[in-house]
Amino acid sequence: SEVVAQKNAAIEGEKKARDELAKMAADSDKIRKAKLEKQGEFKTLLEESNTKIESLTTRAETAEGKWDKYETGRRTTLTEGLSEEDKALAMKMNDLTDMEAFVVRIAGKDISTSTDTRRGANKLPDGKLKPLTEMTDQEKRDTHDVRKAQYQ
């Protein structure tokens, strides 16, 4: 408990130090820009701004390309197995969410992603149950019948 408190205090201290460092860096940048403006070096500021804009534009284009690729693949997956008439209706929908709802309604197709939604492990790798002190309430409930069977 004391170790946990010390760890939490250290984490909090690190967070405060990082926040202060970020604030100092931002303040330093503001001061530098103010000095450059006073010295009439607007050209340097303009070049820095243009470089930042160019970098952000490139990142936005990359993200947009990834989204387009995902959306195209998702639309193809959704329309697999639909009749041509249903495909045509689905492809007219601009919003991907609307298209997913349409496919579910028309085809009864399961569109869920392959995310594993099972609960965390309540057994150790060797197949033995974890000690009760290490289990959550839900894990205790899930393994109740197994534990009960051990004593019958």
Describe it.
- It is built from six helices and no strands.
- The protein is mainly α and 152 residues long.
- It has a domain of 81 residues.
- It is flat.
Topology as H/E string? HHHHHH
Total E-strand runs: 0
Number of helices: 6
- Molecular shape: flat
**How far apart lie the N and C ends?**
38 Å
Largest sheet: none
Cα-based radius of gyration, to the nearest Å: 28 Å
Strand content: under 5%
Helix content estimate: over 70%
List its salient traits.
single chain, 152 residues, mainly alpha, 6 helices, 0% strand, flat, DUF4355 domain-containing protein
Question: What's a quick, concise take on this entry?
Answer:
Residues 125-152 have a biased composition (Basic and acidic residues). Residues 113-152 are annotated as: Disordered. The chain is mainly alpha-helical and 152 residues long.
Question: How are the secondary structure elements laid out?
Answer:
Elements: H1 2-38, H2 42-79, H3 84-91, H4 96-107, H5 137-142, H6 144-150
Helix pairs in contact: 2-4
